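Supplementary Note 3. Input sequence used for the single-chain structure prediction.
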Amino acid sequence: MPLAETVTIDASQFPAQVRADLLESLRTRRIQPKFHYDSYKQAQKWLALHEAHSPARTDPGCLAIYEQAFAAAAGRMSNSGARVIGLGCGGGQKEARLVEMLRARCLPVSHLLCDVSVPLVLTAQQAVERAAPGISGDALVCDLARCESLAQTVDRVAAPTGIPRRRIFTCFGMTPNFEPDVLLPRLAELVRAEDLLLVSANLAPGTDYAAGVRQVLGGYDNELTRDWLLTFLLDIGVEPTDGALQFQVEDTPGGFKRIAADFHFVRHREIEIFGERLAFAAGEKVRLFYSYRYTPLQVRVLAEKHRLKVVQEWVADSGEEGVFLCGQ
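The predicted structure, written as discrete structure tokens, is reproduced below.
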């Protein structure tokens, strides 16, 4: 392992912006997803949760669709190779496997790993290094929702001379935690005519959309998820006895369904953040988390709405996860 890593920090994650985003989250009672990955403690709890409950780690059928998607993307690369750009890379296991597969085909390859969390970016860098030692790579800490010019930011991150110009973007595990019309335009902004995009979506299994979403509710309402989500509140001064975390399925104006988690206060609590005093009354709730569930058809329609064409797709036998290969 290297003795040091160089990480580019985008202005969207500078202290002043993070402070403003945190205060806005608390004032509106809607916590931005990035605040669940901010600290090393939170990142480690999320990684443990991912290992224990993510179908991509526990379901052989789900693992298989990623292998198939990576093989398809690699097969579309020419001898000039590819630059893998992992958006929301998390622990980097999937990006590491894609880089490994590209190198096994003797293709030139480099990578850029991007996440909102410094601990996760560093973890992902190490995962790629273990899978494909010596591959040239860069790291970017960036809030995909806040970055003013994502395409320019990605382009200007320091990169070695002679890197492959054709790019494979990956966006795994991100669509559930973004509003449908927020993330996809950002991805469309990035993907050029010669690029590929691999994006995953959490799906509702079966032919009954509503029943499928209810079926997977138990995958969220568990001890590891509760511990991870509550870490944010406990770290800012809320006590465990101040309320309770409740999960539910809800409809959205766009006709989609999502699983949401709210903390319901049962007693008054005041906290102080950056010199501002915030009060939460008994009976109030704070939205900590939501996760959209889609059907494959919904994913294809959303992609096309934002100028992204799904050229191949793979759905796990369980029906709970899909990977979509997109281009312009």
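The longest strand covers residues 243-251. The radius of gyration is 20 Å.
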